[in-house]
Design a protein that fits this description.
binds zinc ion; single chain; 6 helices; alpha/beta; globular; 188 residues
């Protein structure tokens, strides 16, 4: 949405993450398009989906997967949430929430926070944890999340619970358990 463009370094980090974890011999293409902001900025999942339906133009076809990621100009109905993944190929990043909680004095950098949330949501869309990529070992906790606190797919990565960690910590990677799930489902 206008004024909430993705951080270019976070998008680069996401592209590298996808190319590292997934088998995509034809590569990964990221296309960005600005859409109008909205007046009522606290959205629930249904409202996010309605905005997607009005704006999404690219869908999965044949062996090509398309993912739509909406950056909103506000917050989620649950104020602790920074991003969500929904349906098969859709996610939303709550842009104002991410901006308000990164890049300032005493806050994590915008790259760190935005890349963490982006990669966590895409992790759900490629089936983690146990939502399409069958678990190769028991490591599920807090819904469709990883039990390993150091893993990208730990529940905190999409909530304000991750903020303190990221001030000094790095963007979390997938742990061995999650990588093994992806490998068993065609990843690398
Ligand atoms: Zn999650
Ligand atoms: Zn994990």
């Amino acid at each position: 949405m206008a004024g909430f463009a993705p951080d270019a370094t976070a998008i680069n980090h996401l592209k590298n993450f996808l190319e590292t974890q997934l088998s995509k011999p034809d590569g990964v293409t990221i296309v960005m398009k600005e859409i109008a902001g909205i007046a009522n900025t606290a959205l629930n999942a249904d409202e996010v989906h309605t905005i997607e339906k009005a704006n999404r133009t690219v869908f999965s076809m044949g062996t090509e997967m398309a993912v739509y990621i909406l950056y909103t100009n506000g917050n989620y109905s649950d104020n602790n949430v920074l991003g969500i993944a929904y349906r098969n190929t859709s996610a939303a990043i709550f842009g104002k929430k991410v901006r308000d909680n990164s890049g300032g004095i005493g806050q994590a950098s915008r790259l760190k926070l935005e890349a963490t949330v982006l990669e966590h949501e895409v992790g759900h869309l490629v089936g983690l944890v146990d939502i399409g990529s069958p678990m190769q070992s028991a490591h599920k906790a807090n819904g469709s999340h990883c039990s390993n606190q150091a893993c990208l797919m730990y529940y905190a990565s999409e909530t304000t619970d991750v903020l303190g960690f990221l001030i000094t910590g790095n963007i979390p990677s997938l742990d061995v358990a999650c990588i093994n799930d992806l490998k068993a489902n065609g990843g690398k």
